[in-house]
Amino acid sequence: MYRRSSRGNVSLRVGLSCVLWVAACSGSIGDSDEPSAPDEAGGRAGSSGGTGQPGSGGGGGRSPAGGTGGSIVLPSCTQAPNAWPALRRLSTDELANTLRDLLALPDRPALELPADDQREGFANDAELLRASAAFVSSFELSISGLAEKAVTQRSRYLNCPVGKEDAACVRGFVESFGKRAFRRPLSTAEVNAFTGFFTKTKNEIDAEAALSLTLSAFLQSPEFVYRNEAGDKLDGYQLASRLSYSLWQSMPDDELFAKADDGSLEDPAVLRQQALRMLEDGKTRAGLSAFHRQWLSLDRVDTKTKDSALFPSWTPALAEAAREESERFAAHVLFDKGGSFRDLMTSRTAFVKGELAALYGLPSGGADWQEVELPASERAGILTRVAFQAGRGHSLNGSPILRGISVMERVVCEPVPKALDNVDTSNPAENNSSNKTNRQLFEERTAPQLCQNCHSTIDPFGFAFEAYDTAGQYRREEKGQVIDVSGTIKGTDVEGPYDGPVAFVEKLAGSAQAQRCYAGHWYQFLSGRPLTDADECRKDGLGKASAEGMSVLDLLDVIVSSPEFTSPGRTAP
After folding, report:
1. pLDDT at 164
2. Is 356 exposed, middle or buried (0-12, 13-18, 19+ CB in 10 A)?
3. Which of 74, 560, 521, 486 is nearest to 330 (CA)?
4. Is 121 left (phi over 0), alpha (psi -120 to 50) or beta?
5. Is 482 helix (H, G, I), strand (E, B) or coil?
6. Cα three-residue angle 485-491-492, rounded to 5 degrees
7. Handedness of CA 222, 225, 226, 227 (dihedral sign)
């Protein structure tokens, strides 16, 4: 293997000099049992401005099994929704998916990068995804390793024998690989620059080094790391990228490139045909999994530890399996079954393996994932899964406050008041030897009227889930007492009493407010920006369609058929 020279280090340190932004700061989700900020994933940053195209109705829905067909047309909006961002750094998820597809890797590469900053749980916000110094350095190391391994598949890139790398062969590689890496044809100047770099490196070192370092230079270029959707009008290549990253979280495939090449993708009818094709492709699972993992912060469970004496089976591997189960569940219900928001909230289908089966009260599973049905009286939908429940629990006990805040903010989009200063935010179950249940301890802690001003609203959203311990296991009794899982919601369209977690999530499944909230989160996720007042009309239309039974795949079809989807991006002020 060659020794890498400094001459070959064409890195993001130089390539990103004109677009390097100061990294944005974001809050992290703590374990305090008080709402410390308006959002559980950190404070909301200021909204972006910008103007969009004149408002008009969106496209119709797709027609999968159980879909709504082409009957859905979004209402016209007197105020146009804001344009989508013009420049977007790929998220870590998107980078890993793109590298897998571009380099034809068997699996996503493990990229050791700084965590993407989040806004309201989503890690693809264009304003926050900056090329920080830490990102640049870490990405350079990851790419260098991938490029060195890629040379073992030389024939995938160079269509000429070793030692015969003439100008035509090198130019062919640069044009072909460069087009896929940059997701557009290279300019003459770019072709000449990369061809010259390859030739110079070959002459100074060897062809193996030239291939590896040229691949590395492509992959560390801002044209790879960023999506550029600026201009007076989106061309076919920009539309192909916007479509593929919206639905697949990865680069365009060969068919999208072909439609961009011949210009047909700029025809709205062809664009929609491609969207329908992509929504039927299994790659859509990646987008569904990424959205639901971020929407509900399912990966919180990955870092949770549980008391080893009380929960001896709890391990990092079990936590990871719990998170993956929820992602598999969402993809199955929404992609395989063409399901709706209601199905997501009420389905009893689950996927288990190993010790995860025991947490669901089932016989221990084997090493492979098995599809099962959970007891209808104990579980319903994604909120009652181990990942969501255990991810909002302490070492000893679950937290009805953290669970309640999550439902308020993420499921019904209800603002949570900020906690009072100098309140006791410690876990009331720590060092407590009484026979009081977890709910009783939290009720006692929040009994003062000053606390009740907030907790009388927050806590009922979490008390239903006292049926699950901090590891997400279902239970009926605690410390010899029947657990109280009843409550009364106020201040939303699910106002009123409930008795138990299943009854509670059934109320959420039928909530117009929850449907609107969910649809709005999808719009935020696809657009890569926070929603503003200008988006309220679009959010209303999508929420109404969802409440009428639209499948989630239909919802995505409608969003990518909307006028703003094909409009040029907005340049940040």
Report:
1. 87
2. buried
3. 521
4. left
5. strand
6. 80
7. positive
pLDDT at 364: 80
Most distant CA atoms of the chain, gap in Å: 82
Backbone dihedral region of 111: left (phi > 0), alpha (psi from -120 to 50 degrees) or beta?
beta
pLDDT of 193 over the 90 cut? yes
Rounded to the nearest 10°, the torsion over CA 347, 349, 351, 356 is 80
Measure the CA dihedral 348/353/355/360, to 10°: 10
Indicate the residue type of 457: T
Mean pLDDT of 242-253: 98
Q: Is the pLDDT of residue 8 over 60?
A: no
| CB within 8 Å of 67: residues ≥ 6 apart | 61, 338, 550, 551, 553, 554
- Helix, strand or coil, per DSSP, at residue 393: strand
Residue type, 565: F
Neighbours of 255 (CB within 10 A): 13
Whether the pLDDT of residue 58 is over 50: the answer is no
Q: Which amino acid is at 12?
A: L
Measure the CA–CA gap between 523 and 539, rounded to whole angstroms: 8
Angle 536-547/552-560 helices, nearest 10 degrees?
150
What are the backbone angles phi and psi of residue 397, rounded to the nearest 5°? -145, 155
pLDDT-based confidence at 366, cuts 50/70/90?
Answer: confident
Q: What percent of the chain has pLDDT over 90?
A: 76
Residue ranges of the alpha helices (H) in 386-535? 386-390, 400-406, 438-445, 449-458, 460-463, 501-509, 512-527
